[in-house]
Amino acid sequence: MKTRARFGVTFRVIAVLILLGIVVFPLYWMFVTALTSDEQLFSGTTQFLPDFSQIGIFAEALAQGDVLRWLLNSFIIATGTMAVTLALGIPLAYALSRFSFGGKVVVGIALLFTQMLPEALLVVPLFAIFRETGLLNSIPGLILADSAFVLPVVALILKGAFDGVPREVDEAARMDGARPGSVLLRILVPLITPSIAAAAVIAFFTAWNEYVFAVTFIYDKSLQPASVGVAGYIGEQDTSIQTIMAVALIFTLPAVAFYLFAQKYVIGGMTAGAVKG
Amino acid sequence: MSQTGIRRGRFRRSPLGSKWTPYIFLVPAMAYITIFQLVPLLQEIYLSFTKTSLLNPGRNVWVGFENYIATFQSESFQQTMLVTLVYVVVCVAGSVGIGLLVALLLNSRFPGRGIARALVTIPWAAPGIAVAVIAVWMLNAQYGVLSRFLSGLGVAVGEGGVLDDPNLALPAILITTVWQLFPFTAVVLLSALQSVPDELVEAAHVDGAGRWWTFRVVTWPVIRPTIGLIAVLMAIWSIRRFELIWLMTRGGPLGTTKTLVIDLYSQAFDSKQLGTAAAIGMVGIVISLIIVVGGRLVANAAERNS
Prior knowledge:
By secondary structure, chain A is mostly helical. Chain A has helices spanning 2-34, 38-41, 57-63, 67-98, 104-114, 119-133, 139-163, 167-175, 180-191, 193-209, 212-217, 226-231, 241-276. The radius of gyration of chain A is 23 Å and the shape is globular. Chain B starts with a helix and ends with a helix. Chain A: Residues 71-262 form the ABC transmembrane type-1 domain. Chain A: It holds the Pfam family BPD_transp_1.
């Protein structure tokens, strides 16, 4: 019995290592490629270990052309999207969680339905609307478009979080005469801070990663976010593959780091959103 | 309870405590969603019944169902539907199947479990753009590590590499997508598995049930609703999925990776045919609706039966 159990653990550890290899390898390969010298790269043999003497490539990559500009644009777009979705999503989730009102079912169906809309479909009419209102080729316009797509997810996650707080907690305050707005801000929001943080991370990185709207709405190079910049490297011959990998890695790592850091809440939130959505 | 009644009375006098209160919180968000999603959707529905060029969007000629009829009759669209079907089915089956196995593995006991559970989410956290960039590089015909690996295995890859090969491009995209999706299903299923009561599993073992039997009788009933939901979610995500396919192949070679959404985007922005693009988009939305409603009905039926 005992040897069988030990064999089981060994087997599991091997399976987990294979799994992690498959999961981590592409990111590792970005890193190795960035840190490979030209001679090595085109020598015909595959080099599986990074060459740390090439570490300067990361600084060089950042100094290249528009890379810092892209990252800054992405940061502004992502922060703006996060702010807009939280400002609209928190009140919406509160209303859905704590009140019964006419049209509640319609709101629920609308939120569910918007999750089915492909970005590629709405890009055309939004393009027309933005052209008429002067939002085309502007960062605020992109923030508004991105926010509309994250808002339903954020609202569903936050509704799930509000639902998890017993009603007695805020009802007591309301019965004492506190207005709904201050109940929300003073009592409920502090109680669900982790879920709000998770929703904020999701909103931030959805906008950070967004591509379809960005590539269609923004045509000024100086306003492009990093997603468009990095995607532009595909099929392009002028930039060295090491630089491409270094920039792609710099673009990827914040997202991965944040998800790892906040994953407990993000996954809890996404699951709640998924289950309700 | 009687006390609550008295207090409710006082609450009603508060100026914001009327039946209009929820709308104060609700209206900004719903107005926003209406402006940025529902109004464009309505415009798109209208466009699908017109002949409209991207270069001349003001001039719409009403053509009724012409776009739909022409779309359904074209051979390339039949291929698009087939590719979409394969893409959705493989993405759902692959991500749920592998996700379940990985969830079971990560739910068992082994050293370093916490780190493994954290690391497994990496593909899902990585931006689709970065995934496309690294996939294209790894599949590069001359220098790609996967191309070398494949030729080492004896797979014949043409001059242009895997993504230029009509037989290999779709499998490559499917593997990449499943790689990115299965961690999400794994983590969601893992949290479902954690609500399986240990006592029940032990009781089954004591009764002499084998692993497979324990899974069927104890674990499966608990995770089945989650599997249904995640499958529907994965299906909708795969239908919507754009940037990975677009950046890896743009729907090529020979349309072998052209899904509905890729077709829609290239109709709009390459061929400038907004009406046709809109009609294709509507087909996608109807399919998503059928999946969601169908999923609900199946789930309800299953609930009634059990």
